[in-house]
Design a protein that fits this description.
Number of domains of chain B: 1
Distance between the termini of chain A: 44 Å
Strand content of chain A: 15-25%
Shape of chain B: globular
Order of helices and strands of chain B: HHEHHHEHEEEHEHEHHHH
Order of helices and strands of chain A: EHEHEHEHHHEHEHEEEEHEEHEHEHH
Radius of gyration of chain B: 20 Å
CATH topology of the largest domain in chain A: Rossmann fold
Oligomer: heterodimer
Largest interface: A-B, 50 and 49 residues
CATH class of chain B: Alpha Beta
Number of helices of chain B: 12
Number of strands of chain A: 14
Largest sheet of chain B: 5 strands, parallel
Chain lengths: ~325, ~325
């Protein structure tokens, strides 16, 4: 085990996969000398050359289109789109090409690519650089959607995403780039679609992902001190998501709280609540609850941005409320 | 003498292929009007020499990314017209099992990376195919076929810059039929034309009479070799004309009748037949390939009409490995 940042863990995973498989390569803006927006590609171009770590023009359509073309021609590209907000410039290539090609062509080709697009707040970069739009991508048939929350997961999940034969939308959290944690460099790829249970408890099921994992972990500790035992899950993969784990938990607790940074309306929490309610309506002790962002663009000013954040006290309060209701 | 015979056989095969494309397109439109083929059917009648000529310059293992008007490109690249007709009819045994249709015909076994329903998107896919060839150390090249309308799309302009800036083995073929769907391209396009745009990005560019099969073959063979040797891009502008409207029901009433008649008179198939006749190929042989092509397509149509529908489960297969829609399939196909 060694301690490293979330960004370095992803860099290590990509480096290991590029050594293991010569068909793995990366393309995007500022990958070479700059090493990526958070250093997550640092040193890789020097190591693997400019044909396998390609510095591209600021051309999102071409970055994603080239990734699709290269994926259907026998390689495994990792396309860096920087922020999920910018990935919308290449939404056509992700949705109309990457996600549909295998189906449209009756399985003649797979599209094994990773589209990296970071989500979430980060030090006041405001409305066009902060959006968590994971629900858009989950809606698209054909895509896998991954959102790691720890250095260990950013290592093991990125390995898995690169080896996956489906196109993977890989959403790192910008605010976690410098977050440090233990990573086993020899860890095998994580299983995509498998949640991690962080805390076991029988009072309330809390489901979250990405940066909110850490907020919910702190909340679960506080709740434990206040007599409420949370069953806390980090989904890690949003499509497919671990319904088995979540349904199994809610069956025991009868209470569900979903927490995410993204806008609440049409957010992925709505899907989780709907699935759980359809499956377990009679077993619910209280109406499921969502804690998520307001339906507003992210503001710049710090006090205003803070008002968009779901905080630990909010999670604690919501869990108590669920228990009070039944 | 043997070489001469071989050359005549090749020439007749090319003529036959152009006829196959034209009869295919005519049959597709007829089936659409009869309500037997659904969706959009974009015909390439009048542009057959571009498709056949470009593919004459490519190897079978070279990649070709096409566009929405891609039937001719697929046939020229080597896709099976019978399977393509079944695809248009949405039947089992179609090129894509009936799941793609006219705008999504792909045949990876002959390097055909697919027609494409989004104007210009095939070009960025071809960039990726070229990257793949570079990474895998192959000497194959990628080619992209796109129209004059696509020259106004962002992805294509990005691709022109990218292909030259990163130096990729890609042949960019602008098939200029004068129309962006139903709008005259010249009416919505600034600047002196496709060649100037390509040259502005530093690309080597040529223009060729796209209705002269021999000229297209000469140009495509030469520039494809240049791409293969230099591992850099070439832009080839093929001037041609779309006889029909944008898609089957479009009568093209927006066109100037005089210009239309003049351009229709420049038939690439009749021109090539005349070239062969002038070179001494006997009239019977020239007529025979046309009849063979007509009969071939008629047989494909009959096969397509008799072919079974896809199995129900195909509606749900090949979506993805992880999180595939098993639940939905369980409801519909018990």
């Amino acid at each position: 085990m060694s301690e490293m940042t979330y960004a370095d863990a992803a860099r290590l995973a990509l480096q290991q996969e590029m050594i293991r498989d010569p068909s793995v390569w990366a393309l995007g803006e500022d990958l070479g000398p700059e090493g990526g927006v958070a250093g997550q590609y640092r040193g890789l171009q020097q190591m693997f050359g400019s044909r396998r770590v390609v510095d591209t023009p600021i051309s999102e359509n071409a970055i994603m289109g080239a990734a699709v073309g290269a994926a259907i021609c026998g390689t495994r590209p990792v396309a860096e789109l920087r922020f999920a907000d910018f990935a919308l410039c290449a939404a056509d290539e992700v949705i109309n090409q990457a996600a549909k090609i295998r189906y449209m062509f009756d399985g003649q080709a797979r599209v094994p690519l990773v589209a990296r697009m970071a989500i979430g707040f980060r030090t006041g970069i405001a409305a066009q650089h902060s959006q968590s739009n994971e629900a858009f991508w989950v809606h698209v048939p054909g895509l896998v959607v991954v959102a790691p929350a720890t250095p260990a997961d950013n290592h093991a999940l990125l390995k898995a995403a690169i080896r996956c034969d489906d196109p993977v939308v890989y959403m790192e959290s910008k605010e976690l780039w410098q977050f440090r944690g233990e990573v086993d460099p020899d860890a095998p790829p994580a299983e995509l679609g498998r949640a991690e249970r962080l805390v076991s408890g029988s009072d309330v099921t809390i489901v979250t992902w990405s940066r909110m994992r850490h907020v919910c972990e702190a909340a679960a500790a506080t709740l434990a001190g206040e007599g409420v035992r949370a069953d806390l899950f980090d989904l890690r993969t949003l499509w497919p998501w671990d319904q088995e784990a979540v349904l199994g938990s809610v069956r025991r607790t009868g209470r569900l709280l979903v927490v995410h940074e993204a806008v609440r309306t049409g957010g992925f929490g709505a899907e989780i609540v709907a699935e759980v309610t359809e499956a377990l309506f009679a077993e619910l002790k209280a109406p499921p609850m969502r804690l998520a962002g307001p339906r507003a663009p992210t503001p710049f000013s710090k006090p205003l941005e803070d008002l968009h954040r779901v905080t630990e006290p909010m999670v604690v309060g919501a869990a108590h409320e669920l228990v009070r209701r039944g | 003498m043997g070489g001469m015979v071989l050359a005549v056989e090749h020439a007749l095969a090319r003529l036959r292929r152009m006829h196959v494309i034209r009869f295919f397109e005519e049959a597709a439109a007829e089936a659409w009007f009869a309500g037997k083929v659904r969706g959009s059917v974009h015909q390439s009648i009048g542009q057959e020499a571009v498709a056949v000529g470009i593919c004459e310059g490519l190897r079978r293992d070279d990649w070709l990314a096409s566009n929405h008007r891609g039937h001719g490109h697929a046939i020229a690249k080597g896709a099976d017209p019978r399977a393509m007709m079944l695809e248009l009819y949405g039947r089992r045994g179609g090129t894509c099992g009936g799941k793609g249709g006219s705008m999504h015909i792909a045949d990876f076994s002959v390097g055909m990376l697919g027609a494409n329903g989004v104007v210009g998107d095939g070009v960025t896919l071809a960039l990726g195919a070229a990257h793949a060839a570079v990474i895998q150390g192959q000497d194959r090249i990628a080619a992209a076929m796109f129209g004059d309308g696509a020259m106004n799309r962002g992805p294509l302009l990005e691709a022109l810059n990218w292909s030259a800036a990163i130096a990729l083995p890609i042949l960019l073929v602008c098939e200029d039929n004068h129309y962006s769907a139903t709008t005259r391209t010249a009416d919505v396009t600034a600047g002196p034309g496709p060649i100037a745009r390509a040259e502005a990005f530093g690309l080597y560019a040529e223009s060729v009479d796209g209705n002269d099969l021999d000229a297209v073959i000469e140009a495509s063979t030469r520039v494809a070799a240049r791409v293969r040797e230099t591992r850099g891009p070439v832009f080839l502008h093929c001037r041609t004309y779309r006889w029909r409207g944008h898609f089957a029901p479009d009568k093209g009433a927006y066109r100037d009748p005089e210009e239309h008649a003049r351009l229709m008179a420049n038939d690439p198939i009749a021109r090539y037949a005349a070239v062969l006749a002038a070179a001494g190929v006997e009239a019977g042989a020239i007529a025979r390939v046309e009849e063979e092509a007509r009969a071939e397509i008629a047989a494909h149509v009959a096969d397509a009409e008799a072919a079974p529908w896809p199995e129900e489960r195909e509606a749900f297969t090949d979506v993805q490995d992880l999180g595939a829609p098993d639940e939905l399939a369980r409801w519909v196909v018990a």
